[in-house]
Amino acid sequence: MDEFYETEETLSGPADPDAGVRSALDALDGLDDLPPADHVARFEAVHDALRAHLAGDA
Predict the structure, then answer these.
(1) Which secondary structure element, helix H or strand E, spans residue 20, and what is its range?
(2) CA-to-CA distance for 55 and 42, rounded, in angstroms?
(3) pTM of the model
(4) pLDDT digits over 31-44, tens only?
(5) CA end-to-end span of the chain, whole Å?
(6) Measured CA distances, 18 to 25, 51, 54, 58 (Å)
(7) What is the pLDDT of residue 2?
(8) I need a surface site. Which of 4, 19, 27, 44 has the fewest CB within 10 A?
(9) Which residues contact 27 (CB under 8 A, 6 or more apart)?
(10) Cβ proximity of 58 and 20 under 8 Å
């Protein structure tokens, strides 16, 4: 007899495919509080995170 094991996915449904995008974009929160000189680094970090998400690396 096969036993049914509940996993986190069966309890809460499938994983949210947009979670990685939202997580990357969360890094833009508070951007207005940073000096403009720091914006480029923050944008590059978000870009890298989005690229990794699209590539399936994140």
Answers:
(1) helix 19-26
(2) 20
(3) 0.66
(4) 999 999 999 999 99
(5) 37
(6) 11, 13, 10, 12
(7) 53
(8) 4
(9) 42, 45, 46, 49
(10) yes
Tokens of 26: 């969360």
- Is the pLDDT score of 30 beyond 80? yes
Amino acid (1-letter code) at residue 23: S
DSSP per-residue string spanning 26-51: HTTTTGGGS-HHHHHHHHHHHHHHHH
* The pLDDT of residue 6: 53
For residue 14, pLDDT over 70 is answered with no
Sign of the CA dihedral with 5 first, then 11, 17, and 23 last: negative
